[in-house]
Amino acid sequence: MSTTVRSLRHAWSTLQPLAPEEVIGDLEASFVAPLRTVAPWGLGLLGLPRWYGKRFEADHATGSGSQTVRGVNLVRDSSAGLREVLPIQLSVGTSLADGGLALVVSYAADAPRPWRWVRDELRGAADGTIVGMTFVDRPLLRRVGTPFLLTRVAASSRR
Q1: Rounded distance between C-alpha atoms, residue 52 and residue 34, angstroms
Q2: Where are the domains of the chain?
Q3: E strands along the chain, which residues?
Q4: Cα distances (angstroms) measured from residue 100 to each of 15, 32, 96, 104
Q5: Is there a contact between 48 and 73 (Cβ–Cβ < 8 Å)?
Q6: What is the CATH number of domain 5-154?
Q7: pLDDT tens digits for 12-43?
Q8: Which of 14, 49, 85, 120 gets the highest tally of CB atoms within 10 A of its CB?
Q9: Which neighbouring-strand residues pair with 134?
């Protein structure tokens, strides 16, 4: 898989839409060139210091009998463990990048700024990597997605 901002933006429309149940588990994030240094620093300023990735779990308590998926962001805490922060909602929707289907990760309307305006879109690559594209859903900003990668973490290796 190509690992630059430009190559992932270009490949976005060729990636596969995912069903919500395909992302269940802990997903470790990584950044692509040239964002490897600046993205972690920027996320720290925005309230996600030491961002590790995302956790998605099946939520059977919907009352309708159907399964939904709930999620949270994960950050590394001072004891080298993971802490859940900033809940996220997951739905199937239309990509801002190309109008195709994507899993859309959104934040509550009362989430801290800027998270209430942020949406991540997720699609799958052939090698099993989940490619995320972050958009800020505000005028002039919603047209430019910033890519990141998510890889599944085996339950036995969770930190």
Answers
A1: 18
A2: 5-154
A3: 16-17, 25-31, 51-59, 68-76, 82-94, 101-106, 118-124, 130-136, 146-152
A4: 10, 23, 8, 11
A5: yes
A6: 2.40.128
A7: 999 999 999 999 999 999 998 888 888 888 88
A8: 120
A9: 120, 146
Nearest by Cα to 54 from 99, 121, 2, 137: 121
**Cβ distance 71 to 54 under 8 Å?**
yes
Q: What is the pTM of this model?
A: 0.87
- pLDDT one-digit tens code per residue, 99-158: 999 999 999 999 998 999 999 999 999 999 999 999 987 776 667 788 999 999 876 455
Q: How far is CA 138 from the centre of its chain?
A: 18
